[in-house]
Amino acid sequence: MTLRGRLTGAFLAVVLGPVLIGAVFVGGTVAEVNRHRSVERLDLAASAVRTSIGALCRQLRSAAQTAAVLVAAGEPAEAASRRVVDQGLASAVRFADPSGTTTFLTSGAPAGPWADCSGAAGATDGSASAGYRAIAARVDLRDAAGNGLGHVWAARTLDLVVLRRLADSAGASVTLLAGADVTNAPVAPALTTETGDAAVGVAAAAARALPGDVTRTRDGRYVRRETPAPDQPLPFALSIPAPRPDGLYAVLVALVAGAALLAVAVAWWLARSTTRPLAELAAAVDRAAGGDLDARVPVHRWDEVGRLAAAFNRMTHETRRYVQALTASRDQLRGHLGVLGDTLSSTHDLGRILQVLLRTALNATGARAGLVLLVDPTDGVLVGQCGEGLAGRLPDGQDVTAIRVPVGDGLLGGVAASREARRGRVDRDGPVLSTAEPRCVTYMAVPFSAASRSALASGAGTPGDEVTGAAGTADPLPPGAPPALGVLALYDRLGDDEFDDADLTTLRTFAGQAAVAVDNVRMHEEAQRLSMTDPLTGLLNYRSLTESLRREVERANRFGHTLGVLALDLDRFKTVNDSYGHLAGDAVLAECARRIRGAVREVDLTFRRSGEEFVVLLPETDAAGAAVVAERLRRAVRSTPVLVPAGLRRSQAAVPADIPVSVTVSIGIAVYPDHGDTGPRVLAAADNALYAAKAAGRDAYRLVAVAEAAHPPAQAPAPDAGAPGAEGTGGVANRRQPPRQSRGG
After folding, report:
1. Are the C-beta atoms of 379 and 347 separated by less than 8 Å?
2. What distance in Å separates the CA atoms of residue 44 and residue 42, rounded to the nearest whole number?
3. Which of 4, 354, 465, 719 is 20 to 30 A from 635 via CA?
4. Residues 38-68 pLDDT 10s
């Protein structure tokens, strides 16, 4: 299909669409208005018929009362009845004794059944299935003393004359229906002012309608069904013909046809005037797509199409300038995307992982809110990690990370303590929520515990295997079961439904993933800690020293601060190993490391460099401050002898009790940038100062001399082979390799 055809079709759709919709709307509105008018007309007709029937019932009740008064006055029943009938007050009169047996009935009375104005059963025997033949009103017959003598009925024959009077008063056709049942039982026309098939159609429509409802017959007549009521004992249907606004529909069709012809003409002209410049633009676009960025489009008029052509010309001009820049940056963009993909696939951000798991669990189960908590191993309290949809659920609007629930307290604490998954309703199943827990109606909480990957993969030991709810308790925990790492909880499923077993199974899966994530992150953190920490002393190792020194030098250089570097070496430590053994030497090293770490600030960094050598980095510390720290360290090490237990000494027979071992330390001091312009140079300068302290007699500290700092070694000496990480902590962890330069012990 050509562009001209599409534009023509679009214009016609835009123009003719509202016209057609408006025509349909007008037609539908007219039909609906006619229907409402017909319904209102039937309502008024029903009210008029009920009023007329009520007036007839009151007239018949007066006639019956007249006959009863005449009989009570001593006049025979026949004479009293004749007077009532002759006066036109009723078509017939019937007298009955208190048992209901007829004692007198006027001749020519209509056959039964009669419709009783009081709404009771017919006044004569017989079924009403063929329709009422008369309408009657009943009064009690009493003597002068007020004793009951029976009953008197005054009846009016239901014929076409009566029915037409009702129809004239209502302005609608009236059809009496057979039967007085107020249910939806089938009804039939007993008497009607309708003619021919219309009468059958009205009766059939009335059979389908509920009392008081309006329905339509197949020939388009509106029908309303009425059932008996006090002062209106007749089942009848009212019907009126449906209005037919044929002239209006013809006008609507003519208007739509005229609008269509005009729209076609205008659409053809607009499409023709628009497609020519667009064809030129399309040709230029084809040339540009083929690589010809010099393609230009002539601008005939400064309308929308002309501005589009001018914009295309500017675009091709600017595109020439960007092509080379885009080509040059393509490889760089690919590299960035590769780095981004590697980062996302290898993240160890536990918070981010738990957030993704929680959001996925919410989507999978349809929960409104959720929360992940982990057990703090220091105090055994559940601490909030991340949450979704908790606005307005937490007390005092607190943050998720501020949630702290003691294990065993409330819902979440109980799940963590028992390691039993729970689901249910708070108002039905409990438990009482802790003051720190989110408010909810329905809940589902699953614990997750540390488990091996093989166990998780095989389905054994999956966190949250036990479950308790409204009607069950979990099996007791097996001995030695791992403690809960945390709890994954979801609240208030969408639609106010309770969580089911399928939701619980799904949440167990996510809890298992959360356990694996926590395991992986903690193993990663522990591996990092072990790779950066000396296992014997707990201080940072030589690997950490290299990275930390570089980082601290960069920070000092960025902010214009100084960095103090202390190189420490225990004096005559070889004597301790030779005299008491390496286990005793390990104990001395560990105690000295503890004293060194306790004598510096929290921001200061302490390292075991190798053997009995240590390094301390003092951020924002000059030479004078470093000297103060060095003196404090020297005194802390030599203040109290280290007690070596008998069980750690090589020979235990001679001295069974613990013996004190006096230890001293020599310290070299250097400061960045005064004594070196790089980290390795400053550390080498501190080593030189340490040599000077050893040469001066040990148990002392020395600041590097300016002459020594002027030409320091290019890099710090490598650590001894006995550094932590090269061998274990038992027995040989403190062994010294042959020194790089003699320090005199």
Report:
1. no
2. 5
3. 719
4. 888 889 988 998 899 889 899 999 999 998 8
